[in-house]
Amino acid sequence: xxxxxxxxxxxxxxxxxxxxxxxxxxxxxxxxxxxxxxxxxxxxxxxxxxxxxxxxxxxxxxxxxxxxxxxxxxxxxxxxxxxxxxxxxxxxxxxxxxxxxxxxxxxxxxxxxxxxxxxxxxxxxxxxxxxxxxxxxxxxxxxxxxxxxxxxxxxxxxxxxxxxxxxxxxxxxxxxxxxxxxxxxxxxxxxxxxxxxxxxxxxxxxxxxxxxxxxxxxxxxxxxxxxxxxxxxxxxxxxx
Amino acid sequence: xxxxxxxxxxxxxxxxxxxxxxxxxxxxxxxxxxxxxxxxxxxxxxxxxxxxxxxxxxxxxxxxxxxxxxxxxxxxxxxxxxxxxxxxxxxxxxxxxxxxxxxxxxxxxxxxxxxxxxxxxxxxxxxxxxxxxxxxxxxxxxxxxxxxxxxxxxxxxxxxxxxxxxxxxxxxxxxxxxxxxxxxxxxxxxxxxxxxxxxxxxxxxxxxxxxxxxxxxxxxxxxxxxxxxxxxxxxxxxxxxxxxxxx
Lengths: 240, 247
Description:
Order of helices and strands of chain A: HHHHHHHHHHH
Number of strands of chain B: 0
Largest interface: A-B, 33 and 32 residues
Radius of gyration of chain A: 19 Å
Number of helices of chain B: 11
Oligomer: heterodimer
């Protein structure tokens, strides 16, 4: 498979470029923040959430998950694209006997995988943090903790696809980064948006527990559409 | 001073004709939206309430994030394709280059503060506030917000000089900006957290209903002492690093 080969070479290229560091920093950073939040005012927080400690912790973490996902998507896309932009190596890469579609798909997959790893670290770390905070190991809500990071991730997929498209095709990263940061900040008010606005999907996918199917499904479909449009653009683009 | 003004002129040229104008307009434009949607009917001091609502996002998130973006941006041309060598073989000193870059970053932030002031006056006019503008407090808050960005911008410039990647310093900045939302609640830690200082300096406690929270009612002078102290430390750190850096 062409894509597989391109992907494995991409994995090599991003070594020591700070992408895995960013993945780690973002997810562990969120956890560290809550560790401090709970650690510094333990008695107050325990008292506030004494009905269901795990639920309290999950709620506190979730309030930062959508914005972290959007900012992470922006920065990781930019980092992945910069590997080629910085060395002006697009020409060399595209001169290889490999289709542009595979090149683009491999980079997009790399972005999806990197963000997925961040979500995995967040979920695993949430369990560890809860145990360290002495919430007990008897009734850990594993499924909710997995949903905590992966449902919003699927809701944020369209943004990740859009950021990858923009970052990979524009050499000047100011535009995608501005857009990403604006979207991230706007996503803080997701509770006020009607549900057809994609910015609200990471929020709705976890909060509206009755029907996460709509934001998640719409997220996956829209991400695929954005990916196809982006690939069409990338294939026809001049490279210099 | 090592061709400082010449570098300043060339840095200004590098910043023009990029999407940088977008970044300058972003925060004031969003603040206008926030201001127009806010409800300030019957407030005691409408201008201060307006400053509180509009300054919330602006100072809590945009100022720290933009400080980082500008610092990363000002180093972008040099990191791309060996520009450092080309720049430093010119008859300029590294000190001159460093301070010229820092100046451009701070001028950008000053422009944003002015645009934000314009946005506030615009919203106030649209809303028909007839009370006189509290120039003293508003001026002090906006100028204070700018001064509070000094240490952060110096820190971010140092990091941006260190790392050749464009997004890595931004990532660092963003990761430390998000906790702002929690840190400003703490009167104990808030004033010492460089990313929270712009917010604490900009939004005064009396601008909020109920007199503000957390670190917002600390004396302005104490905050400024912390800010200027850390500014000197970070600036000297970045400067010595850049002087000794192997290009």
